[in-house]
Every structure is written in C-alpha cells, then in structure tokens.
Design a protein that fits this description.
The protein is an alpha+beta fold. It is built from ten helices and 15 strands. The strands form four sheets. Strands 4-5-6-13-7-8-9 form a seven-stranded mixed β-sheet, sandwiched between helices. Strands 2-3-14 form a three-stranded antiparallel β-sheet.
Length: 375
C-alpha cells in the first residue's frame, strides 16, 4: 500500500496522512494508520495518551477481526460523548471493596474499554495468587468487543470470561416492552500450537451494532434476527431504529443466559440494570451507567498448563478432522474465522466502508485535525 503511514505521530497531532486504497464500496487502510488516527483524536478530545491507546487497540482490533459493529463505526459517538460530558475523559477506577480474589470497582463514568482492560488485568493478577480472580465494574460505559479482554487472560495461560450489561432494546422472552438487551458473553481458552478457542457472542440473534452496520451498507438482515415494532418478523435493519427489537438466541434459553449476564454485572456490582442504563446514541451528555464482569481462571491451579494446552490441541485436531456433514467443507472452532481475518487485514489493510471512514474523518476535522487522504 502506497503512502506514508502516520505512525509515530505525536498525541493530539493536527495533521495526519491516511493511506487509503479503494476496494469495492470501501477503503483498505493500514491498521497502524487507523490506530494513530484514533489515538490522535482521543488525545485531542482530552483523553490521556495511555487510555487513548487502549481504546484504539480495541476499535482497530474489532475491525481487523471483522467485528465492524464494534470498531471505527463507534468512534464518532465516543468523541461526541467525550465533548458533551457523557464520558469522563479520565477513568477513575476506584476500588469500592476487595478481597484476595475479588474486587468491586467504580469507574467514575470512564471509557468502558479502559476500565475493562484494567479490570481484567486485576482479575489476572488475583488469579495468579488465588487460582481465580473476579472483578466487577459499575458506573462505566460501552466497552466494545469482548474478545480482547479474555485474550489478555489467555496470554497468561488462563481461561478468561467477560460480560457486560447495556441499555434495554429488546423485551424478555414472551414480552413486548424493552427490558434488556442482547448482552454479550465471551470466553477465551488457551491452546498450544493451535489457535486459542474464543467464543464471543451477543446473546441476541445479532447485536444492535451489527444490525446498524447492515443498515449503513443497506443490506437486508437474515431471517429470525429482528422483528418490527408490532413483533412481526422483518429483514429490514432500519427497524432497530424504529421500535423493533432483536430476538434472543435459542428463544427462552437465550433469554435465560441474558438474565444471567445481567445478574453478574448490574446486580452483582450494585450498579444500574437494564432500563436504568442509557443507550450509546442517546442523551450524549449523560453517562450510560454500564457494568462489566471479568473473570480469570488460573489453569496451573488445577492442572499443568502444558498438559492442558496439549489436550486442547488434540481435541481441536480431532474435531476439525471429524466427518463433515453435507454442505460443509471445513469445521471451524469458535474464534477461528476472526483470527484468520485479523491476520489478513493486519497484513493487507483493514477494509472499512466509505461512509464509516468519512464519518471518522469528519469527526477528526471537528477536533481541528486535518486528515490528508493518500490514495
């Protein structure tokens, strides 16, 4: 890809060069250039550089892994919330209560990804001494994709678990009044020579962000994801903005899992729950009041990590080489598609839609940053 990548740019820089190669209906951009752009925008908006880097890591990683609903698409609203007071520019991370294996954190309305990284790192530290660490955060905000948090545990030969609550955009099973959301549940398990197993799933048939991404690209959504404001099935993603709601996975079983996520986050933290939280795109001058749950399980407290990872490797290979059902060319493990996408896009550039990158550039320019497009 031609053009000079804007790596090494000073925080809050006023001029950035963004290499862009047009492809289909979007642009392919180097991951390092996107990371520098996000970091510059956030620091310009008043976020400390170290925290800006954490947020940039999460947004760029999400797009690289193909989780576009949690990537650069979210940056303009993050900036608006920072400027209007909905997000505190500095995350407080105040320990409210603590034991050797647990901690409750008040986030002071800070950036969700910053607070969740610190929470998972504290859970990992506690698991190193106690075999298991659990950290719950309240008074936080949107924290993006879950995979990066559990992968922090995986890199320490630990099993990671993370979930978060969010605003009420869907009814409970059998209801019509929004009472909850398609909350995410994320697990990460280390392997040896094989890729880690990472299950990162919103417990609705889709996430609101993914449906908004379909709406942005004017793509219909698959059957069974969404209903309109009357509860009738629809393939029109715009209904997520017009009073429709996302269906839970597995019907009543998915609703039960969503409830468990809510109990582990808002209830366990003593923070806001469901209808008490604010949607990311509403009331930009108010905090969202989200809560997060992070757990790290130290494998060596139970079994030799090398032996554990070898068994995981053996099982992955056995699964992948098992007889395939008609219509399947390959059996994939959870997270495998995302790891492949990330490897390719970090080498070739991350593909973003034209509308997303233009919105990001407009947001940058509103901060006084000039973005030079190098094509």
């Amino acid at each position: 890809m031609s053009g000079s990548v804007c790596s090494g740019v000073k925080p809050g820089a006023a001029h950035l060069i963004l290499p862009m190669r047009e492809e289909n209906d979007g642009f392919r951009i180097p991951a390092t250039a996107l990371h520098d752009l996000v970091t510059a925008m956030l620091t310009r908006a008043g976020v400390p550089e170290a925290d800006s880097i954490i947020v940039a890591d999460g947004l760029v990683s999400a797009d690289a892994r193909g989780m576009n609903s949690h990537g650069m698409l979210r940056l303009p609203v993050y900036i608006k919330r920072l400027l209007e007071g909905g997000f505190a520019k500095t995350a407080k991370f105040e320990i409210v209560s603590e034991t050797p294996g647990t901690a409750l954190i008040d986030g002071g309305n800070g950036l969700g990804s910053v607070l969740t990284v610190r929470a998972m790192d504290l859970a990992i530290e506690k698991a190193g001494f106690n075999g298991c660490g659990v950290v719950v955060v309240r008074n936080s905000n949107h924290n993006g994709e879950g995979a990066p948090y559990v992968l922090r545990a995986v890199r320490q030969d630990m099993i990671g678990l993370a979930t978060t609550n969010g605003s009420a955009i869907m009814p409970v099973w059998g209801g019509r009044v929004p009472m909850t959301g398609p909350l995410p549940l994320t697990f990460g398990v280390p392997a040896g020579k094989e890729l880690p197993i990472v299950l990162d799933a919103a417990l609705g048939m889709s996430s609101r962000g993914k449906i908004l991404y379909h709406a942005e690209k004017k793509l219909p959504i698959p059957d069974g994801w969404l209903v309109d404001a009357e509860g009738r099935p629809t393939n029109d993603p715009e209904w997520v903005r017009k009073g429709g709601w996302i269906l839970p996975i597995g019907g009543h079983k998915g609703w039960g899992l969503i409830l468990m996520c809510e109990l582990l986050t808002g209830f366990l933290s003593g923070g806001s729950i469901a209808r008490e939280t604010t949607n990311l795109y509403d009331h930009l001058n108010e905090g969202q009041h989200n809560s997060h749950f992070c757990m790290a399980i130290n494998i060596k407290s139970f079994i030799d990590p090398g032996f554990f990872k070898q068994r995981v490797d053996d099982y992955i290979r056995e699964v992948k080489h098992s007889e395939k059902a008609p219509g399947f060319e390959e059996i994939l493990m959870p997270g495998e598609i995302e790891f492949r996408k990330e490897k390719r896009q970090r080498a070739e550039g991350i593909l973003l839609t034209k509308s997303v990158i233009e919105d990001v550039i407009a947001s940058a320019e509103s901060l006084g940053i000039t973005v030079e497009r190098a094509r």
